[in-house]
Each structure stands twice: as C-alpha cells, then as structure tokens.
Write a structure and sequence with these properties.
The chain is an alpha/beta fold. It has 4 helices and 14 strands. A 6-stranded mixed β-sheet has the order 10-11-9-12-13-14, sandwiched between helices. The protein has a 5-stranded mixed β-sheet with strand order 3-1-8-5-6, with no helix packed on it.
C-alpha cells in the first residue's frame, strides 16, 4: 500500500519576461520611420490554490519541478509579446508552504477542509517584459537602437507539509472504534477491519447537527491508531501526531472490551504530551466504546471513577447507544469559545 503523502519537496520557477524589440517603421513614403519595437510579454507566475477535493500531496510525489511559461519577445510595428501563462499548483486544505533551504514560513493555508472557498496565493510573479526601442526615442535620439531584455524568472525550492484541519480529532489505540464512529456520524467511508492499523491515512468527515434554522457542521478527523512509543516513532510513529495539532478538541476513544482499557488513556496522554505538551491543553472528552459487549458497562463506570475530572461518555456504534449525546457534546467541543 502506498505511503500517505503529507510532505513533498518541489522546485518552482516563474517565467522570464520576453525581450524588448529593436525595430523601425518601414513604410513606402516614410524612408526614415521612427522606432517601432514592441515590449516583451510578462512571464507567467507561480500560483498555489486550495482544492477541497484533495486530501494528500500524492500529486506532487512524481512531479516535483514546476515552471511557468516565459513571455514572448516583442516584435516590430509596436507589437507586444504575448504574456506567459501562469502555472497553478493545487494543494489540499491545511497545507503549509516553507522555504526548503531555511525553513521560513511562506504560506499557511488554514481554511477548514470542505467548508471554505478556494484560496489562491501568488507566490512568484513572472519577470517583466523588456521595453522595446519605442520607449527610448528622444529629441536627441530619433532612431534609438536600444531595447531592454526581459526580467529573469526566479527559482525556489519549497517544502510542502500537510496538516489535517478538523474541529474534533479522534484519538485512540488500534481497534478503539474511531473509524466506525466516523462512519456512523458522517458520510465518510473509512476502511474498517478488526486488526491493527487498518486506518493508514487520516480520514475526514462532516457531522451535521441541529436543524435547518440552527445548523452546525463539525469536521471530524479519524487519526490512525497510536501505540506506546508512537512519539518516538513506534508503530505509525509521529507521522500522524502532527495532524492533531490543529483540532479544537480531542476525543480519546477507549475500547471498554479490552482488558487493559484503563491503561489506554494513560498511554495516549503520555504519547501526546511527549510529542507536544500543548495537545493536552486542548478541550477533551473520554469516550468509552463498545458498550454493547459484556462487562463494558461496569468498565465504563470504573473509567469514570478513575478520572473524576474528565467528561466521560459511553457509546455503542452497533446499537446506537450514546451516539446522539456524543454528537451534542461534539457540537459544544467544536465551538470556538
């Protein structure tokens, strides 16, 4: 299976401007016509745009060099050269552009996936076209043989990073039920199976709550399962931990049918704190899953008693128990307040 593409290094070049032209009018009854050299066309620009249908940077994996079109040279009879076509590079929402040489931030696209209008960012403007000799006529020089070359385009190497944007991030050990919950809540169709690391890429879904007069869309991200040592690279490693950094809140899913359900939350807290202590400062919720299975109700009560300062809810995706209440809680967690 292909590796999830959330980073790419590309080289982009704006187009050079066309050269100005040296030319003179040559008409039947004007033996000494004045200058008529036109200007060169402007070079094409490099433009980045957000496309909400893109979820990864896979389209940049096999093509990593991008060059806008050069402007055409000016011509006689005052004809200007054609402008070079701009080159537009599409990116998914949540993309961050940095200078690959020094790491300096170039552009941070922060619009919500699927909810914002497309953004366009002109990164490198094309070179200006050179002036033709029509610009250099003067009282002392009626026949200038001077024209300017077009301005050269620029080349920059960039690093593109993708950080998934969501209101709620679903975090849990493998098989905690994150993908099943996402499918139940939204129209997302993640791959679901009872073995570790079924989810290999972050999945996004939109949960719509409220009625037509008070509708709210909440973006939910199913982050691939974490294991002990993930912050140091174990399992799927830190590759996906960074995708939690932009969520407004975190829902920790705990499999209540697992005999080690109580230790699961501690493992998750440790890994998130090791990656970034700020993650544990976000609004959070503990969600005990699979309450339709034997002994899970007792385990849910025990989980709540062990963490009296945490909000704890129990759900069953199979029976629907607690799903409505969880949706309402997600609505509050997704608020900007």
């Amino acid at each position: 299976m292909e590796k999830f593409a959330d980073e790419a290094v590309i080289e982009v070049s704006s187009g050079s401007g066309g050269n100005g032209c040296v030319a003179f009018r040559r008409e039947k009854y004007v033996p000494k016509g004045g200058p008529s050299g036109g200007d060169g066309g402007r070079g094409g620009s490099i433009i980045f745009s957000i496309r909400n249908n893109l979820r990864t940077l896979a389209h940049l994996r096999y093509k990593n060099t991008f060059k806008a079109e050069n402007g055409n040279d000016g011509e006689g009879s005052g004809r200007y050269g054609r402008h070079g076509e701009d080159l537009e590079i599409p990116l998914p929402p949540g993309s961050v552009i940095r200078n690959a040489q020094n790491g300096k931030l170039v552009k941070d696209f922060t619009g919500k996936a699927g909810l914002e209008e497309a953004e366009r960012f002109i990164f490198l403007k094309g070179g200006n076209g050179g002036w033709g000799n029509i610009h250099f006529k003067s009282s002392v020089n009626q026949a200038p043989r001077k024209a300017l070359p077009g301005q050269q385009g620029k080349t920059v190497k960039l690093k593109i990073e993708l950080q998934i944007i969501a209101d709620i991030g679903l975090v849990g050990l493998p098989n905690a039920g994150k993908s099943s919950l996402l499918e139940r809540f939204t129209n997302a169709r993640p791959k679901i199976a009872p073995y570790p690391f079924t989810t290999l890429i972050p999945n996004l879904g939109v949960l719509t709550v409220g009625d037509i007069n008070d509708r709210k869309d909440i973006i939910i991200a199913d982050i691939p399962g974490l294991i002990k040592g993930a912050s140091g690279g174990a399992g799927l490693g830190i590759r996906f931990l960074k995708h939690i950094s932009r969520t407004k809140a975190i829902a920790f899913l705990i499999d209540l049918s697992d005999e080690n359900f109580l230790g699961a939350y501690e493992v998750l807290k440790q890994e998130l704190t090791a990656f970034s202590p700020e993650l544990m400062q976000k609004k959070r919720l503990l969600v005990g899953t699979k309450t339709d299975l034997p002994h899970t109700k007792e385990n849910l009560a025990f989980l709540a008693s062990e963490y009296p300062d945490e909000k704890v809810l129990g759900i069953s995706v199979f029976s629907g128990e607690g799903i409505k209440e969880l949706g309402e809680e997600f609505m509050h967690l997704g608020d900007d307040k």
